[in-house]
Amino acid sequence: MELRWKTKKGSFCDYNVIIEEMEPSRRVTSEGKGVFENRHVQFDWMALAGAIDFPKEISDHQARLLTSEGVCDAAALGKLTPNSILAGVSERARAFLKIRPRTFLIATSLSIKVLDSLKSRTYLGSRIQFLKAYPSRLKANEVYEKARRDGLPQIPEDYCRILVTIRAREIFGAMDEATRRLDLLRGIWNLELNRRKGIQYHSGPNRPVNAILIGPVHTIHALNGESADETYWYEAGFPSVIPAAIDIGQSFGKIADTEKVIRRQLVKSRFAKLATQFLIDYARALDSADLFKVYLSLWGLLERLTLTSERDGHDVTARRASFVWNRPKYQRQFVNYLRTMRNEIVHRGEFNQPVKELIDPLRFSIEQLMRFWILNPFRLKTSDEFSSFFDLSPARADLQKEIRLRKYALRYHHPRNRKK
Fold it and tell me: What is the DSSP annotation of 38-86?
């Protein structure tokens, strides 16, 4: 397996500039190891890792580790070049992928009360169990005690305990993939719960939009229950005011129906990977109590749902987001206003209106687009078809004119009785 550099479109930096900056600080030790004397070499490794196209089996953390090792290998052999770095990192990646995956158990929690009817599920090949308590074989007490001493919130007693069984080559990849699967499930469940909320008004401290949150602390274990890592993992953005566990018993029938429909659609959809990432991003965007962070995360998701690129003009997102609404002309003005508010946060660092009043309207636009992507009612076949569909004018007269002209073009270039 030979790695490649990402195209300029897919990379956020020019790796040639990074390499030229690293070369003067390159040294070879008496043991023959390549080292660097500049203080920002950690950034250089991260930048280069982001510029290399790694296979999906390698987590972001592992990609950065392999890049640092591969770059040092290349540095020991001579002058750094794009090809020598790719060769060094590729060699490290090949060795890593030869490691046989093993089974890990990820212990975490969800902010819901345990339901007897809540059975285990399999998401993306991994089993998710919903428990009142962790199995006795799970050795986690010392890790949780360390988290408590460090001042982290403990898992509330009424939170549902979660155990994810997953296969991976290393603990970072295991934790990353386990949380992705949980966030996919939470994205589906919260999508149904949030759909019923409407616009929320409340006083007091800000709280997450999502009712179902992932717990504050996670641990990782071998299959026999022994700890696979000496420390704990935690949610840095977990609310300071710990949300109470919610009872989803009365609404779980509808939640389960929605989950069944979405999972069925994802199985047969050619856009399953994209729609899955939308659901994960949706869950994560609405977890925070920092409403400015939520607003910016939601706007970024809206741009991805509308396939807005860096080359597109400022009105593309609003035009495409409004197309799926019954009153697109009005909705377009509203989304343009939401865009203006987003720009005030990003460019001026201020906001002239309470942000909590705009979270729900922005969320509504996102949820409407997500349903369209998941259901794909017209069986659009490519992302370009989605873009072209969203770019159409919703006005009846414009659509009829478009149909008429395309029919004329078809008859002009492809007449039925064209003479040979």
Answer: -TTHHHHHHHHHHHEE--TTS-HHHHHHHHHHHHHHHHHHSS--HHHHH
